[in-house]
Amino acid sequence: MTASARVHAMDFTQTLGAKPARRIQDLSPEATLAKLETLAHLLDSAFLIPGINRRVGMEAIIGLVPIVGDIAGVVISSYIVYEAKRLGAPRWLIARMALNVAFDGAIGIVPLAGDIFDAAFKANRRNVRLLRRWMERKGGLRPTEIEGTAVRLDG
């Protein structure tokens, strides 16, 4: 192998002596909210149950494992509350979100009935919706829905 072939075979960053590139994360409120919406969808409504057309998520599936699954669901759901606090949400909103997670976790511990409730309550989607509404009202986020009355112009 010639010297030039070895240089081309080497990693470009090693050739220049540069540090490996780090992944840049977007920490803007919009990006964080989009990430939380994706997480809430995955946890609460990622899969469609055929026949009954009901959506469930990973939290309902891991909740089938007694106690450990329910604790894991509460821990993962608490991440959304943590991110809301990091975004500067007021105490009343954090408390309401934490109560949603606690209620979901407490009822979810009950065998079978708790799992059915967990599939129906969808605490994560509720919490992200609460956070989005607060961010829209605060002015830190453009609204997804336009308030007002629509008037048809063609007729």
TrEMBL record:
Membrane-spanning segments: 60-82, 94-117
Lineage: superkingdom: Bacteria
Entry keywords, A to Z: Membrane, Transmembrane, Transmembrane helix
Record PANTHER family: MEMBRANE PROTEINS, PH DOMAIN PROTEIN
Protein name per the record: DUF4112 domain-containing protein
Organism: Methylobacterium trifolii
